[in-house]
Amino acid sequence: MRPRLAGMSSPRRTRPRSRDRHGRRLRSELFRAPVPAARTRSERFARIAGDVMDRVRRRAPEELAGVVLAVDTAPLASALDSLGTVELGRVYPASPERPATIVVHRMPLVTRATSLADLRDLLGEVIAEQAALLLGRDIEDLLP
């Protein structure tokens, strides 16, 4: 044991600083990037919407070949109708600058759905409805 000199405190241990400052362990994600559990909610929604669009596209492959599906978080505030209901999707016809686009709004759809199966069904109805508006066909012809 070393003798202490007057007025000096005990020597500190020199340890590298730990990232576990408050006892909460890991500060990084538990899953690596390619693992499905690491996907965000918006990525999972976009994947489900893409699967539903593929099923609708199989009902009219020639007409929907150039149609693009886009996912937006929420519609603009100006998209409210006179009753105050929020639109779930929108279709933009093709122009010389851009292809025809079907846009689905994630947040209104997720809040209305009570389960994953319900979300798939609701997405199928919205995408089929928008595709029917675009093509001038009956929605029953395009439902997945």
Structural summary, described in words:
35% of the residues lie in helices and 10% in strands. With 144 residues, the chain is an alpha+beta fold. It has a domain at 36-74 and 87-142: Zincin-like. Strands 1-3-2 form a 3-stranded mixed sheet. A hairpin with an 8-residue loop joins strand 2 and strand 3 (101-105). Helix 1 (41-59) crosses helix 3. Residues 1-29 are annotated as: Disordered.
H/E order of the elements?
A: HEEEHHH
Give helix % range: 25-40%
How many whole angstroms does the radius of gyration measure? Answer: 27 Å
Spatial order of the strands forming the largest sheet: 1-3-2
Largest sheet: 3 strands, mixed
